[in-house]
Amino acid sequence: MADGRGEMCGRLLSDLGADVIRVEPPGGAASRTQAPLHDGVSLPFATHNAGKRGIVVDHTVADGRERLLRLLDEADIWIETRAPLDTDVVRARNPGLVVLSITDFGLTGPYRDWVATDWTLLAMGGVLSRSGLPGREPLMPPGDMALQVTAMQATWAALVAYWNRLECGRGDHIDFALYEATAQAIDPAMGTVGTAQVAGYAETRDRPAPGPYPIFRCRDGHVRVVLLAPRQWHAMRAWLGEPEDLQDPELETIRGRALASDRVHAAFEQHFRERDKHELTLEGQARGVPIAPVLTPADVLAAEHFRARGAIARTELARGITADAPTGFAEVDGRRVRSARRAPELGEHDDEPFAGQARGNPTQPPAAADAGPMRRPLEGLRVLDFGVIVAGAEAARLFCDQGAEVIKIESRAFPDGARVSPVHFAIGHRGSRGLGVNLRTAEGVDVIKRLVARSDVVLANFKPGTLDKLGLGAQALREINPGLVVVNSSAVGASGPWSTWMGYGPLVRCISGLTSLWRYPDDDGGFSDSTTIHPDHYAARVTAITALAALIGRRRSGRGAEIATSQAEAILMQIGTLLVEESLRPDAVQATGNAGRHAAPWGIYPCTGDDEWCVVTVRDDDDWRRLRSALGDPEWAQGEDLATTTGRLARRAEIDGHLTAWTRQRRPREVTATLQAAGVPAGFMQRAPEYEDDPQLQARDFLRTFEQPGLEPMAIEHAPFRSELIPAPADAPAPEPGQHTREICTGLLGMEPDDVDRLLASGVLEEPIGSPDAGQPALPG
User: Are 593 and 644 in contact (CB under 8 A)?
Assistant: First the structure.
């Protein structure tokens, strides 16, 4: 019952095997009319509700309420955005039910009655302030980014609470705020960042300076180059023919190349100008240069790689409508997890039995226990974390925050690249334990295998095949521990023509179509995604969700699973509606910038102050009437043709001019408060330093102080959702490299202290240099 927001949450659960029933009122959910439409079918509805069964329930009459109650008596999870029944009454009948209440701003706090759209969430959630080019207006990202990414956070919340029910027998009520989730899960200003983001760029109130991910024109489009490691710069320089003016030592660093970008980029531009994007990519990747083509949605749909992997395929969206579409988020045991059926027609499954059906579910919870102390649901699980940089850190931290024991595995020869920024490493790995081990040695691999026998999950995001070469591939590990869930997250997938490509986030955005749409439409070179870390945090949630679902499945089958996820394919699902529209109407999907495609007024408007902006989004004719009232019903807004969306779209520029004249006289929070009081979705553009003064975030304890030894106290987000039973994450610091090597080896693996000393002395095991325990017997534990 998630209408218009959170629908993808149910879609993902359906992909993973849940029986998801889409409950709609008579006449259908409002999201059935959401643009764009094709032959009368809403493409967003068709995309977000694939795989579900559909019924109609009129909760305003006694028979309908009773039918809904019977459905909820048999349910495990209830996803709702506007509960038509008292949730306390429902939970009294079914104490094991997990209720996931998805609202714009939360069930409490001063903004609880405000209304939001994807754009207002991006503005208030801190994303908009960092999107766009310096000196220009902020630029709205494409593809309903806030609603798609927060749906993943909501799915994680639902499965964590469901796992908790399986453990303790008690359901829960999750208060899930899209506003908070937007600030946490898209590109969190207080989260982990990529290595290039700590290269020393000066902070500015305006849009940040573009990151070191330049895009260059070529004969048939554009390519992007991402040079981070010295060896990559050397490979690029060799490709250029070792020009004399690029031999300067200062060009060895990211920052040095940024300061000399005019000279460096001129050489790149000349080299790329007369060659095709795919030709350049194939040669560059073969030479060790991280490069990718900037693909349009049409390019993505035609890409051999995604076709070969089954990531895009002909798909029935609705009865009589078939299109090329993204198929699913992940692969489990070699098979793509995807919906088994199209989205339901209204009331299509009304006659199917639901209540009282035998589900044959061995995961039925134990008898509900008396209320006891709050517990972290994933306590007792052990995760081996081979993850690196952002995506790897985030997936492991999601488990750690919910109580799992996470062991971070590193070596001095191959440290996590995120350690170049101690602050961001601490944020990303808080609560983990550190094991230092050299995996290039047989004895080091043996230590890992002994750990695998005592673990539940292995997380990695190396280049495909890396762990196999070390003798630690999924098949080998599952022979040791058949219940193990092995997760490999990669940039573009473990198979297919592009699987061997180096794929950092900026390159992933290019090949998945996002970069081509994230630009100013009046500027052919105005690509504006170079300061974001997306999709790392989003893709990490996809990885964590699929891993936890596999652990739930293990309770039934006793077997683990091999999971593969791809950052590129996560983006395909995020912009799935746009890709479907492009398939059905070629060339229909282009960069639109800050102009809403399907409604007006819908845009970003300047306000009083230094680089201050506010988003105003009029969804329908009712919103237009509310906006007119809030503005004092001005004469310019009284035309009869403006009463309809079609009329307003035709006069968009005129309306925007009048609205801009009004917003320019007011501060963004004043604009927001005035329009929200009238029920119009509006949102001030907020920067991360302003979070601590935001009344809603204050009221809901959004921030907490985190302390890491050797660093200044830092502000981080408090919890990913509010729960009746699940406590906020613990405050344990991140580990130094190898900090817990001794206690893990002696306590968990039962190794003799003398053997640990020998392996430390030979370099198989590692602990912090200068550790006071070095050479001392370790305590059992």
Answer: no
